[in-house]
Amino acid sequence: MAHKYENKQAALLAKVKGKTGKISDKTHEEHLKLYTGYVNKSNALLEAIEKLGTPDPADAAVANQIASTIRNLKVDLTFALGGLKNHELYFNILGGDGKISGKFAELVDRDFGSFENYKKDLKATGIAARGWAWTGIDADTGKLFNYIGDAQNTYPIWGVTPLLGLDVYEHAYYADFFTARAGYIDEFLNFVDYTAVNALLPA
Question: Cα–Cα distance between 36 and 55 in angstroms, integer?
Answer without folding.
Answer: 29
